[in-house]
Amino acid sequence: MIQLCQSSDIQDPGAKGFSDDNYNILVVHKDGQFYGYRNSCPHIGVPLEWMPDEFLDKEQRLIMCANHGAEFLIETGECIAGPCSGQSLTAVPVEVKDGVLYAEISE
Ligand code: FES
C-alpha cells in the first residue's frame, strides 16, 4: 500500500491524480466513497486529464477523457460513451485508514 494524501484533500465530489515513476492513478471522491483507477484511457492508453486533477465532467457525475471525450462511470470505470464504449478503466484498490488515503499499486 502506498500513502496518497489525507482523505479530506479530495473534495466530494472531486478527483485527484497521483503519479511517480512507477504509477499514474486517479482517485475520485463521490458520496463519501473513494474510487481508484489507473490514469490510462482504454482508447489509446494515454492519461485522461487536460489539466492537473481535472478528471470529471462539468456536472462532476462522470469521469471524462479530455483527449476524445470518452465518459466513464465513477463507480465502475465502465466507458458509457465515446470511442472506447464498453471498455473500462482499470480499477486500483484504495482505502481510507485514520483519515489517510492509501492505494494498492501492483507493478
Ligand atoms: S484517448 Fe481517451 S477517448 Fe481517446
Structure description:
By secondary structure, this protein is mainly β. The protein is globular. The mean pLDDT is 97. FE2/S2 (inorganic) cluster binds next to loops.
- End-to-end Cα distance, whole Å, is 12 Å
Order of helices and strands: EEEEEEEEEE
**In order across it, which strands form the biggest sheet?**
2-3-4-8
Q: Major β-sheet, in short?
A: 4 strands, antiparallel
Salient structural properties:
107 residues; 0% helix; 3-stranded antiparallel beta sheet; mainly beta; Rieske Iron-sulfur Protein; 4-stranded antiparallel beta sheet; single chain; binds FE2/S2 (inorganic) cluster; 10 strands
Report a brief summary of the structure.
This protein is an all-beta fold and 107 residues long. 0% of the residues lie in helices and 40% in strands. The chain has strands at residues 2-6, 14-19, 24-30, 33-38, 62-64, 71-73, 79-81, 91-92, 94-97, 100-103.
